[in-house]
Amino acid sequence: MDQTIFIVDVQGFGSPERTADDQEKIRRGLERALRKAFADSGLNWDACHYEDRGDGCLMLLPQEHRERLVWPLPGHLARELREHNARHRPEARIRLRAAIHFGDVTRDGQGYSGNAIITTRRMVDAQELKEELAASSAPLALIVSDWIFENVARKSHNHQHRDYRRVTFDFKSDQSGNAWIRLPEPLNRDDDSSRDRSIPRPWTPPVGPFTRSAGALGVVLLLVLSLTAGGDARLGGCPRPPAEIRVLVSAEKESVIRTVSRDFERVSRDADGCPTAHVRVAAVPFAGAVDDSLAQGWLDGDQGEVSAEADVWLPDSGLEVSRLRRLLEDGRAPGVSVHSLGSIAQSVVVAAAPRRLVERLGLEAGAYRWEDMLDWPRRLPDGVSFARPSPRSSSVGLAATVALYRATLNVGALTAETMGAAGVPQRLHAVEHIMTHGDEDPVRLLCALRNAPPDSELRRTTFLVSEKIALDYRGGEPLGGRCGPSSTAPELVPLYAEDGAPLLDHPFVVIDRTEPPRSPARSVAIEEFYRYLLSDQARQRLRQAGYRDPTGAGPDRDSPVPSRPPVREQYGLFDDRALLETWDRVRRSARVLLAIDQSRTMSEPFPYHKGTRLAAAVDAVWLSLRLVGARDEIGLMGFAADLSGSRDHRLLLPLGRPTTGHRRNMERALRGLRAVDAAPSLHDAIGAAVDRLRDDDDGPDTTDAVIAIADGTDPDGPSTAALADRLAAGDPVRLFVIAFRADGCASGLDEVARDSGGECYEVDGMAGMRRALDGIAAGLWGVPHS
Amino acid sequence: MTSSSGSTAAGVRALLCAIMAVALAAAGCAPADGGRRGTIVFADGRDTSQGAQIKALVNRWNADHPGQYVRMVELPESTDDHRAQLAARAQDAVAAPSAANGCIDVIALDVVRTAEFAHWGYIEPLDPDEFDGKEFLPTTLETGRYRGRQYGIPLRADVGLLYYRKDVLDAEGMRPPQSWEELRRQAMTVAPRHGLAGYVTQLDRYEGFTVNALEAIWAAGGNVVNDKGEAVANPAEAVRGFQRIPQGLREGWILADSVDYNEEGARTAFQDGRALFMRNWTYAYRLLGAQGSPVLGKFGVAPLPWPSALGGWNLALSRCSRNRDTARAFIRYLTSESSERALFTGAGFAPARRALYEDPTLVRAYPHLPQIRRTVERARTRPVTPDYDWLSNTVQEHLYPTLTDPSAVAHRMSDLVGELRGPTSAG
Predict the structure, then answer these.
(1) pTM score, two decimals?
(2) Rounded to a whole number, what is the distance in Å from the CA of B11 to chain A's nearest CA?
(3) CB of A241 within 8 Å of any CB in chain B?
(4) Which domains does chain B possess?
(5) CB atoms within 10 A of CB A669
């Protein structure tokens, strides 16, 4: 069927200077201007099919409107736009391109389509038209097709065809055509003698649910009712209340979801302008960190429990949903279930690294490997720090930790077995000590980075964050709500993991209850909300906020990001409970005081070793350095009867972090170590070591441990019972003993050690030594012995 | 805004509570009717200042009424979240009236919600005589009425008051201002002399903003919506009235941080001694006069130099309630004179019952009580409409951005009124 096609497009609608408020003003203003211009041109608005495209609109008009559409409508429209612009600030002003064509249009289930519409769209997007408008101060630039020009403009009686100039435009990729453009002069209302006196009725929008983009045609068919005064909500007079939807959203998405929710409320008004849905959005922290002790207490029905139910939950990742679902399956909340409708957006975990680091390590291509990352501190002498959110409180943290651990251990899946294997705890411990910048939220740290002084450690920090946050930082967006841009903010380059950046799939999760069941109106509204989130308009908002489409397209930001980086789904790659328990343990800091027996029996030879027991003990000390991570502390003590004046022990190296300097001091101390001709004083030494640890304050979550490397007996010393008392009387200190005598752990020492949370090892060779050290690592950072 | 591990537990609990059902004891199987007693559920707002008092009252009821247990549920603090919770549950209850669980029998409602909840049938009309209607100040009872029927019984009233630094005004030999002009003058001249900002109030983008905006508009004789709930035709006075706020910000005598403040923000600023004047609700009085407050003994309270908006909370009966005898008896109990006395003396809210204002012991202990009564009696109600939520949001949407741009008030107000007017406008 032949229709006159009229497409308008607001120049620069999506420009970053425009706020959502501006865009709203523009859309309203455009609608008003069109309606008024129609009225003034004697065109019947009701006879036209109108569709909002988000930043412009498509109209199909009956044939008889053709002449008046070409003239005088553009003149009246130009005047209306000029008046709008006079009343608004620059960012809310309208500069419009309009295209008129005529041709065959077909209607299918999805709306209108046809080559004629495509052609008209190409016309309105013609480069020459854009330039003509940009170069002028006019509010409106018009382009008409050759057909219109020949059959309408030329044939009119007012010779306005002389105002047109011819241009070419591409109406197919390999074909160009003619069109005619002009800048219409604003007409006064009375200029047009052919004006029809009838006033059109208030516009009622076509009724029906919005439809999604019609695929390849690219014609966006959205029915945005709020564009007209007719679609505005009214005070009172609506037949039913808007269905209430309570939404919980991750902190990162809060702002964009609020915006999209408001859009949705507007879109879902009915023909009379009555709202059919109302969305209440609240931010909630990450829910994945549910452990059993918390689960015990959550069904507390006591007075004062704040009850804030939700209908929809929008976490950053389905990993959080899995955890919650498991809890529900445990029967913790009868009658409640969750199900996911699908992904509404995508993001990935990136490593936002300082430019300097990127250059020094040659990572300009934008990719990195997890196993290499752990090596960066070694390769960069002035140090590298990392900031990674806690896996207990962040999807990003969880995803990054999974990737790191898998790369470190080179295993397929992270299970209790793979993470509890011998030698593993200390490796993960080392990883944690490289990765963690305390427990601080990287978003807060990024905020601090914006204003960090030149020598701040933050400037050498690589941040493991979501792509969205990295882009927000780069784009000067407010982080976490209140942190504004700064001109001195150092650059961070987002890097993507070579074997797949961990995927954050942003699911739309519906929370269902059986008692009471959700009202049908609310259930429908929730489904509509989900569908709206998948609409072009909502996707555009999400892309502008730094997210990718569910299909992976986007984000719409200036920063260069790979269009579709390789991503890695992490479902099934880990046991979340085991992972978090492991993380809890391996990230702990320890203060380890090594106590070396220097008594005479230590000068005896040690099997399978070229030296004495003392030499073996020294080797053990070096090996135990591998146990400790960058934030642990290690110290050294020697003991034998009367070793230091009247005392039986001597501090060789105070507790300190295993920096290069500290290691050098340790080396010096060990080199000077000799066995003395004295009896052992093991129990006293242990007691003294314990006291020393207890004297110093340690941080929270720090484990204190004494590792005594000795022959094992102390016949003249206090009894093991006395030692046990001493260990029990004060802050916990774990005792580990590496005993060289065959029965070194007998006579109660093994019990004392175990009671303190440690262990006693009888060691008769270096293999045994290594096993003992693995056991100690497990004791400190692995699953404790039962 | 992701929490550190310390507060994760609370946050997780919040989420878990959000997805779990409120498990309620079955209330019985008879249809909702009179003549039923049993367990009921009561939802209050999460108001920490009076929370302890309400809980104590509920505990006493439970001790005295075995077999009519009141299970109390606290809803979120923010009035918008509170409203959303109640509305969602009410919609479910209306759609499934025979559902055994899930009904909140007695709800505490912000006064602006009466119209919405009554209009959509979430709550039941009540006979005011059953609830001592005549004992309440008429303006407070009015807040529970919609289209001639009584739906809410006042739990407490509330009005805005002018808190001021008495020590400063006394030193200057001045009394509190009685008009906006006088407030402005004192704020501009006196406050800087004492190193204070002039005036602090709630101008963040939430209901508090709407309250302040309406008060300013009313003070100039204007309005945005008339008593019939229709948008006014000519907003010239509304423009004049409201414009004084962004002008005051520009002139610097209204503390700039006010644009980020809610009630607690403003109270903290005044309590820290940063401002000469503050507009705030009655609750602030108790906190400002508490042990350790920097302004203890230095502040006074006066009626606002313009009509205050009338605030407060009412108790209403849900349509889905089955054990209505218990529910109504509980409402009577919680709104009784002795309960109100406990709430007032415990948390300092404005009473709704006349008797408390006339009680000599109370007046002696709280000399500002008569002023509060006058303010309550003269207070103005915000527009009574089931769409109040939308109206307030629209006011905020249009006018909040003008706080930094007084010249934009005129056309923003005209847009606002145009939007409120709806499809009857010529467009």
Answers:
(1) 0.69
(2) 6
(3) yes
(4) 30-158+311-378 (3.40.190.10), 159-309+383-424 (3.40.190.10)
(5) 19
